[in-house]
Amino acid sequence: MNNWEIAQIFNEIADLLDILGESPYKSRAYRRAAHQLSNTYLDAFQLYQEGRLKEIPGIGDALAGKIEELITTGKLRYYDELREKVPASLRQLLLIPGIGAKTAQIIYQHLQPRDLAELETAAREKRLRELPGIGIKTEEAILRGLEALASSKKRLLLNHAFSIAGEIKDYLQSLSGIKMASIAGSLRRGMETVGDLDFVAVAHDPLTAIEELAAAPFLQELLIAEDCQLSLMTKWGIRADIMVVQPEHYAAALQYMTGSKDHNEELWVLARRSGWEISEKRLYSSKKEPPPSSEEELYSRLGMLYIPPELREGRGEIQAAIKGDLPNLLEECDIKGDLHVHSRWSDGVNSLEELAKEARKRGYQYLAVTDHSKSLYVARGLTEGRVWEQREEIRRINQRFSDFRLLAGIEVEIRPDGSLDFNDDLLAEMDIVIASIHSGFNQDEKTLTERVVGAMQNKHVDIIGHPTGRLLGRREPYSIDIDQLLKVAAATGTALEINSSPDRLDLCDRYIRRGKELGVCFAVNTDAHNLHFLDDLQYGVLQARRGWLERDDVINTMSFEQLSDWLQRS
User: Fold this and answer.
1) Which residue segments constitute the domains of the chain, with CATH numbers given?
2) Tens digits of residue pLDDT in 132-144
3) How far apart are CA 473 and CA 452, in angstroms?
4) Which residues of the chain have pLDDT under 70?
5) N or C, where is the chain less crowded by C-beta within 10 Å?
């Protein structure tokens, strides 16, 4: 079993423990372990062979033993025992975005639906609202969740998709006939979720390479094997399309397989008008010129700048490339620090000193510790007294450094009544303030919009955290007037967060681009609760690039001195 497969089992164990009413700390340990396994570059199988499983952060003796059992037997007795205790129909309820263990228990106890179809029927017949603790809003949310579940089936989050794609790419490159392999498709474009995986491989004898690929260990079902293309269903339940071409056709094949469909169709029309023809393997003309040696050369022959993969969505990028007006997209190396990180003072796992050490190791100039505020009890939110204690510890740590600064921040809760968790006097003393919503998601659009707008109008609020509250595949964005949100952000100078956590990626790319056009500034943050989740920054940068953002659009590309001036703007 690979890291991703083990992580899937650990996530389900966490769900089962929640249903059974076990300690939330127990299920949280499994979820954290799953997140670590999905994101770490350390290979669990190799670490097991070397006796080093506990080097994965958050993996102690007990979890290491369970990973070892999965690796050596392909099964886990503890997991099987939990599944026997929880009926399959009850487990299915947890697949629905927005349904937690408590709601699932109530529905199962009173209705015992055999499957999700029966649950949908009960919701449409308005029977769920009659159950204790459900009500009309929850019933409507369940219907929306069922619709979201149907549309998001077998779509992977970016961290999972990159994990699986990396394994397939490594296998491709291990074959004797394959000279090179690249990830293509929606994953290369950085889409927030991925429905299938695409690859381009280079071989001098593509047909022989295709025959080798038909014996891939991850192959569950062979779907198509013809000419230079192989399509298969993998053991992970996601389809992989692999095109194998000779070296001279690599650039054209990579461009074609990267897509998107709208981008490619526009490109083909433009090419034909210019006397060129594009196929899935070639760019050619009557002049019989040699094939382009790179994607850069391919776009240049068509009279335009090279278009980065993240922009290839058919949203005006071709016209901009012809005019020479493409943005100089944000790069991960542009980021000078992370402005949304949690420590063990609230619901994080690392000390302030550990976070500072890791941030300096990454070359950051600053890192903002923004633990939760007091009303978020489940996350051990800080009281006023603990805020001052934490500030004092941050001050002591900062005395050791001349090239780095921990910022004393707070993620202050925007309460359901629109007020903030702390008064202005305390917020004025913080280095940086993020305002976020973690409750009251089911309020109407007007109320939710007013809550966020009110926070932006507070002169002490610097950033709005995860502005639409979505959890990809689990919770839809809450109902908010995004146009008003963007306009107020531009007017007040409040930065909107691009939350890099792969299950959030909030804001979405279309809102980011609309905000850029209005002059909104952004912050690309990880919301890391463990120092290893600082790696999630790569996904936020991809999202920012898809929204056409440049370095100057993002506040945490500033030097520490520039950021300090920006934070004092009001």
Assistant:
1) 3-152 (1.10.150.110), 157-323 (3.30.460.10), 332-567 (3.20.20.140)
2) 888 888 888 888 8
3) 24
4) 1, 39-41, 97-98, 151-154, 279-287, 570
5) C
